[in-house]
Specification:
about 475 residues; alpha+beta; five-stranded mixed β-sheet; four-stranded mixed β-sheet; 18 helices; about 40% helix; flat
Length: about 475
């Protein structure tokens, strides 16, 4: 809403955003990031979705009307000169002290995620910079809400702090490139569902840099998987400025912790005769690729047995259906939905023996995962989208006509928007019949992939790092 108001103001149209009390601090940070710190905001006291209609009417009359009139009258200047982005200094020593003093200082400055960090000394940062041919002051982009520049230098700084190794630097840069893509909608990273970005890695770097792609693949414990996952959360906090309230703009109501990197078991994929996940994303087999997408919920472990694809997919559909139905209204509202299915190698092997391809899996789940139209609209209402209507989304061209085939609230509509948007990754314990599903937050954190650009001296640098 604030972005729409800012656009209206810049076009010369007066506007007022209505914001509930719990969102006021977040709104102030976002407005400042938009270069309009005095954007007109009318505060609704309390939480409207827990108020009765009578209470909403009373609060509107007593609190909102006067604020809206005053805001439309523009009693204050709305806009200020927007900065191109806060520029961080480079090669600056910001603190000297013992390891304990460094930890205390970084926590006090809110440069830490609450865990101990590795001090980003000039020597440590310089070691990271050797692993890229990009200039240290290169501006990769600007990240909201604080509109701070993402640079090669601050990527290295946060990589050091997260406990990464210097040779991870090309991956870190590719990750930052990905979240800067407009399709990722990073500006919504502080949304109330509290979604977390997930990094999926494909290519020879999985083996070269010792990523775990077997048992416990999503467990903290392997340096590459864990530190790079932590890096992304630190970077979002320190550079973008997306910190939890009351000091930042992150309004994740409950939220969760960062995800470790999901590395695909490409050896298992090759034995299956499938192409890796990166090829599904439009890259050539054998290329190093990072993919980043949001994850708003993770399914329980899905155990399935049997000798046919149908015996496994039937169970997976039931479990995945329970998880996706709870969040499908967001996809229905925005026409975007990118669930991810993580298949254990043993299950994928049975599916292949049955003659199924990845597209067969996608089509099966697309056809099986349905929800009553009225239930999708009901879930949307409870989340605050009180005017949500599938028929309206069809009229606007956001959804296909099948979603408005009748006015019957009990009609079944697909949970998935398009079957090809289901991601499939093979990884995890090869000795267990377990799968898992990762559900993205519709348009927030759409799936974006980037090629990992290795430095020209990569092979020489790798030889130096070998014990």
């Amino acid at each position: 809403m604030l972005r729409a108001s800012a656009a209206a103001e810049k076009a010369g149209v007066p506007s007022v955003s209505i914001v509930a009390t719990p969102f006021m601090k977040q709104a102030a940070v976002i407005a400042k990031g938009l270069g309009m710190p005095n954007l007109s905001i009318a505060e609704y006291p309390g939480v409207p979705m827990t108020d009765s209609q009578e209470v909403v009417r009373e609060k509107t009359a007593a609190h909102l009307v006067q604020q809206i009139v005053r805001g439309l009258a523009h009693l204050e200047s709305v806009a200020e000169k927007a900065e191109p982005g806060i520029r961080d200094g480079v090669r600056a020593v910001v603190f000297r002290g013992t390891l304990a003093e460094v930890q205390d200082h970084f926590i006090a400055q809110q440069w830490s995620d609450g865990l101990p960090i590795i001090p980003p000394t000039l020597a440590a940062v310089s070691a990271f910079l050797r692993y890229t041919d990009r200039e240290l002051e290169e501006v990769i982009g600007v990240l909201p809400p604080e509109n701070r520049q993402a640079t090669v230098w601050n990527v290295a700084v946060n990589g050091v702090m997260a406990g990464c190794r210097p040779e991870y630097m090309p991956i870190l840069l590719a990750i930052v490139d990905a979240i800067l893509d407009p399709e990722f909608h990073f500006e919504d990273a502080g949304a109330t569902p509290g979604w977390e970005p997930l990094v999926i890695l494909s290519g020879p770097l999985i083996e070269q840099l010792d990523f775990n792609c077997g048992a416990g693949v999503m467990r903290i414990g392997r340096q590459a998987n864990s530190s790079i996952g932590r890096f992304l959360r630190l970077y979002i906090r320190n550079v973008a400025g997306s910190r939890i309230l009351p000091t930042g703009s992150d309004k994740g109501s409950i939220a969760g912790s960062f995800h470790v990197v999901l590395a695909e078991n490409e050896s298992a994929v090759a034995e299956l005769g499938w192409q890796p996940f990166s090829v599904d994303q439009g890259f050539a087999a054998g290329e190093n690729v990072v993919t980043v997408q949001s994850v708003v919920s993770v399914s329980p472990p899905i155990y399935s047995g049997g000798f046919t694809a149908e015996s496994h997919m039937e169970v997976i559909a039931e479990a995945l259906g329970d998880e996706t139905r709870l969040r499908c209204f967001g996809g229905h509202g925005n026409g975007r939905y990118f669930p991810l299915l993580l298949l254990g190698p043993a299950i994928a092997e049975v599916i292949v023996r049955s003659g199924w391809s990845k597209n067969d899996i996608r089509r099966y789940l697309y056809d099986r995962l349905k929800i009553r139209a009225g239930l999708s609209e009901r879930y949307a209402w409870h989340a605050g989208l009180t005017s949500f209507s599938l028929e309206e989304k069809v009229r606007l061209g956001i959804l296909e006509p099948r979603y408005a085939s009748s006015a019957d609230p009990n009609r079944e509509v697909p949970v998935m928007i398009k079957p090809e948007w289901l991601g499939i990754v093979v990884s995890g314990d090869p000795g267990r019949n377990q799968s898992k599903a990762y559900i993205n937050n519709h348009i927030h954190g759409q799936r974006v992939s980037r090629l990992v650009r290795l430095p020209r001296a990569w092979n020489e640098l790798r030889r130096e790092r070998r014990p």
